[in-house]
Amino acid sequence: MTTSRTLYSLCGSDTSRPFSPHCWKTVLSLAHKGLDFEERPLPFTVIPTVEDGFSKTVPILRDGDELVSDSFEIALYLDETYPERPSLFNGEGGKAMARFVESWSQTVLHPAIVRIAVLDIHNMLDEPDRHYFRDSRTKALGRPLEDVVANREEEIAAFPALLAPIRRMLSFQPFIGGTSPLFADYIVFGALQWARITTGLDLFADNDPVRDWFEGCLDLYDARGRSVTAA
């Protein structure tokens, strides 16, 4: 089947293993909407060259004549453009909730995953991406990648405690979105999928309801999340 909808995402040397947390949010957003699309995973250094340099980062969605970047902006675009299909937010309150979840994920989960996975990500890349990644992340993190992961085992042990908010929420409802998943669920899923694909580590507590929730998200939409195996 041909489609005019293309999602540009991020990969390392293996194009069959896209790993960006933000792109995984968009993959599930498109599936949530029931929209067909072609995914084109790209290395870091190729991304700025596609679509006439439209964006330096992915995800980038081409939908016919429209180009949209940033996973949250894409989700908003999809809800506005396809209102007859299942909503990703279920109203203004859902958008506001998703902004909070995004902020929590990117200020709490993402930095911890970087301290665990940054060297694994580096090793998934080919040149010149390895050089680009090492240089840019060393500058951003203020130290060599090897130093970032120096306390990796302690970070792994501490990670389940970071999931306490969602763990408590799951005692009241099956998804962040309530009775069914919304974009807020895909935000947290994207972070944990990033860790799964790049490290393959079990970052959950024993008998963790968050693991059950994550496994359920992996099974959504014909198990789209399982199309890429754990490292």
Automatic annotation (TrEMBL):
Stored SUPFAM superfamilies: GST C-terminal domain-like, Thioredoxin-like
Domain GST N-terminal stretches: 10-86
Coiled coil: none
Name assigned to this protein: Glutathione S-transferase
Species of origin: Agrobacterium radiobacter
